[in-house]
Write a structure and sequence with these properties.
The complex is a heterodimer of chains A (about 350) and B (about 325). Chain A is of the alpha/beta class. Chain A contains eleven helices and 16 strands. Chain A has a domain at about 5-100 and about 180-255: P-loop containing nucleotide triphosphate hydrolases (Rossmann fold), CATH 3.40.50. Chain A has an eight-stranded mixed sheet with strand order 8-9-10-3-11-12-16-15, sandwiched between helices. Chain B has about 325 residues and is of the alpha/beta class. The chains are: A alpha/beta (about 350), B alpha/beta (about 325).
Amino acid sequence: MTDFLSVDDVSRIFGPNLSLGERIAARLGGKVETRSVRAVSDVSLSVRKGETLGLVGESGCGKSTLGRVIAGILPPTTGRVAIDGAPVMENGTKVTTRVQTVFQDPFASLDPRMKVGDTVSEGPIAHGLTTRGGARAYVAQWFERVGLDPVWVDRYPHQFSGGQRQRIAIARALAMQPDVLICDEPVASLDVSIQAQIINLFLELTRDLGLTSVFISHDLSVVQHVSDRVAVMYLGRIVELGPVAQVFGTPAHPYTAALFGSVPKLVLDADELVRFNAIDGEVPSPLAPPSGCYYHPRCPLATRTCRETQPRTQPVSDLRAVACHHFDAHLKARSSDAQAGRAVKT
Amino acid sequence: MTDPVLSVENLCTHFFTRAGVVKAVDGVSFDLARGEIMGLVGESGSGKTVTGFSLLGLVDPPGRIVRGSVRLAGTELTTLPDARLRALRGREISMIFQDPIATLNPMLTIGQQMKLAIDAHERLSRRAATARSTELLTQVGIPSAAARLRAYPHEFSGGMRQRVAIAIALLHRPAVIVADEPTTALDVSIQAQILLQMRDLARETGTAMIWISHDLAVVSSLASKLAVMYAGRIVEQGPTATLLRDPRHPYTAGLIASLPAMTKPGTPLTQIRGTTPSLLSLPPGCPFAPRCGKTTDRCREEPALTEENGRGWRCFHPEGSNQEVPA
């Protein structure tokens, strides 16, 4: 299989938007924030056709920014995103409809003053996928596809529950007949019992429509469930990338291991019901990232090399890559731990 | 068994809105022993937060506690005059809220806010107040606490702000703390740090806690017993391990089964059909009946509480056991 969606060396920098007065003040030594944030740094990845790539990390790690760059909502500062070889953006403008997005909050992402049917048909009409006359039938078809009653097209968003609104948002994205779907925390704002419904819908739709997707979430168990491969981000960089079972089973990066370890997990068939460990410290400010490896201040394995040089991304196996100076030692320690039957600690 | 520090009986909090009466909390009963942590689990709108607010007498109109009793170390709170309730709030029973940004005053330093919280109940010298504040901030894991007293809330990260809120709740060593989703807004690595600290704090100080959350795994990591709420009622309660391994109420069983970790990756999750009901138009009888796979004609009546071995549930057709509740 070939790469379908490719992200090449993408960085996105947010600079302070200084007014003339602020620039003068800064020049004269005033306290004006002139530093910029590298929300996404040198990210390269590719997603094969029909594959779901999970994107995980803590808040502020740049996963949403990367999602927006891939979706063509934000132009990258450097680098390029392409679908099937064709660029998503040219000169800062989105030039394709082949990638669509489902956002986290279905209360904010639907226009409260538009009938939901109009919200769903607006894009397809503008891009000639349907006509004004045919819009109703076209929308009805997508409503059915996502499990909504087509008679609801004339209702307004406030008449729907959170789960139903998220279905409408999914219908809006799919009605553009995209090849790539970006889901930015699509279930984070939903109730537990509704989450399962939307996850099942996502699994069914991506399979039936052959969609390629990027699934962004801070909830590792959800990502583990829906993704084929997963990328772990920390302070704007991808620290580890690989097939879900391998990355979750035997993490190569100490951060991946620590992140997975810190999620409380129910283990119903063991004495100890819930397992988790804490990582020390907090994520540093992206305005002033640490030297060398960004994770070194929190890493129990950090050495001088880690404090001084940024680790390059290197392959662990065919499908896996990791950005860590000491991943070999880390992997070895973990596998011997597992063999000894000890609880894996980080 | 020793006397419970908090005892709630048949608590009913209703909201009298123009659209009708919303029975947000409808007949909630539980006991909490000294130093015990109870998890209160439920989805949005299940009444878990209103239950927490009712315990502290924080329900605003159009809401009102219409029935039931809340006894804190023998004192009945529901009929207590406002002034006496204020004297207890923060001292004997306190609350930690979900959003630490909204909890703290952005205009005051952390030290000033902690001093205010101390002054509300005690006369302490400035020096003693500073010492107590520093001690508590250290206890909840804030580095260089003495210096941080002079900092404003915006100078703290989300996790650190929540720690400050926890320190303020602990200032007077209350008998009971109600924590309403205090880690939901935080990152998982910070959540883990706070959960471990809270577990130790409860053990050391003997403070009992009610931990409100929608996340079963988070609550279970702390609580020795669980109460599952649905549509204003506790539909099942019992010791954490028993309840999770052998749930009786179909809703509890459904919640556990719908966790992604319970299903092989890539395969459909077990889902509870339908949506959470509107409290304005609840069906008569069991509120879960329209979404339940085991519904029969009997479910049109409200099931009574069945109690067995220190646990209880409200269902005519409980899971796990073949015995039906005799008619």
